[in-house]
């Protein structure tokens, strides 16, 4: 199997942390998205949405979207402790918090970063005011995580899950927008430090997960 990615991007980091947690190693191909390689016909032939990451299976089938790729490996390997949860309530809570962290956190972070920095203004309309609004929405979202983490060790409860991976990637990414947990968000700070001590996360952060 081959993973087409740009390792430092948030979407690729989500998959890489997930795979590192499972102890999975795959071949990797770097895709120059800043240079527009993902916009070529060749790349679109393997990626339905023209984005990274994309997993190409040995039989030629391809999967895009980070969580879809993670679900594939979860179903393929069937770990004893699934990062998507085990019991019905665990699975539901993980799915709920995974979506909350995506829709109110990570995806808003993408909007803020792209519109404020105008990194892709050669291929999309960038509205700085929307970027600033998105940035404020991120700041307003962090107390939600603080409240949840004041009651639980991890985002979706008391077990590490893919919701923690998504939230951690989001919290790390928005540092590029000068957003960090507020001084009084002690539970969020505790959780972030705890996640950064995980071997899988350290390997990805160090770029040694290939």
Q: Can you tell me about this structure?
A:
This protein has 210 residues and is of the alpha+beta class. It has 2 domains: 78 residues, Glutaredoxin, CATH 3.40.30; 111 residues, Glutathione S-transferase Yfyf (Class Pi), Chain A, domain 2 (Up-down Bundle). Strands 2-1-3-4 form a 4-stranded mixed β-sheet, covered by helices on one side. Helix 1 packs parallel to helix 3 and helix 1 packs across helix 8. The longest helix has 30 residues.
Short description:
With 210 residues, the chain is of the alpha+beta class. The chain has helices spanning 10-22, 41-44, 66-77, 88-117, 128-151, 162-173, 186-196, 199-205; strands spanning 2-5, 27-30, 54-56, 62-64. Helix 1 (10-22) runs antiparallel to helix 6.
> What oligomerization state is this entry in?
single chain
Q: Specify the overall morphology.
A: globular
* Helical run tally: 8
Q: Please give the share of residues in helix.
A: 40-55%
Could you tell me the mean pLDDT?
95
Strand order of the largest sheet: 2-1-3-4
Alpha-carbon distance between the two ends: 13 Å
Order of helices and strands: EHEHEEHHHHHH
CATH class of the largest domain, anyone?
A: Mainly Alpha
- Unreliable spans are none
Number of domains: 2
Q: Using DSSP, what is the number of strands?
A: 4
- Give the CATH architecture of the largest domain: Up-down Bundle
CATH topology (level 3) name of the largest domain:
Glutathione S-transferase Yfyf (Class Pi), Chain A, domain 2
Radius of gyration: 17 Å
Strand content: 5-15%
| Main beta sheet strand tally, sense and closure | 4 strands, mixed
